[in-house]
Amino acid sequence: MHTLSLNTTYQATDKLKLHANAMYNDATAEINGLYLSPINTADYIMNQLYSTDNLSRYSSYSDLSYKQIECNLGGTYNFTPSLYMTAQAGFSQFLDDAAYVYGDQDGTTYTGSLGLGYKF
Fold first, then answer.
1. What is the per-residue pLDDT for 101?
2. What spatial distance separates the first Cα and last Cα of the chain, rounded to whole Å?
3. Residue 55 in contact with residue 32, Cβ under 8 Å?
């Protein structure tokens, strides 16, 4: 897994503070060498529940690979020492290179928020 994260804050004026962050994540994972001894019982149900017949499939089925990108920009403007407004915009993208595990999880989202606050 490799992750890169960048964050910054900038005081543009006495009343305006800006922030930005970006994150990139590249992850892969897999299971290798999963070997269990077969269960030794005459019980049909136990043999079905704990069968080792499908263990050879885990190595290929467990291959996970995805990339994730997130970017956010925002700021806070102070009207007075107590009254302020915040705004933020975001972008997120998820690229699943092994869609057979949980289905296709690729997607892109855009978010935004606007808030008004008062400090007591």
1. 59
2. 44
3. no
Largest pairwise CA distance in the chain:
79
Each residue of 70-98: pLDDT tens digit? Answer: 999 999 999 999 999 999 999 999 988 77
Strands 2-11 and 16-29: antiparallel
Residues linked to residue 3 through DSSP beta bridges, in sequence order? 25
Q: Which helix (H) or strand (E) holds 32?
A: none
Residue 56 structure tokens: 């050879």
Q: Which residues of the chain have pLDDT under 50?
A: none
The residue ranges of every structural domain in the chain are 2-32+63-118
Which pLDDT belongs to residue 54?
60
Tally Cβ neighbours within 10 Å of residue 51: 11
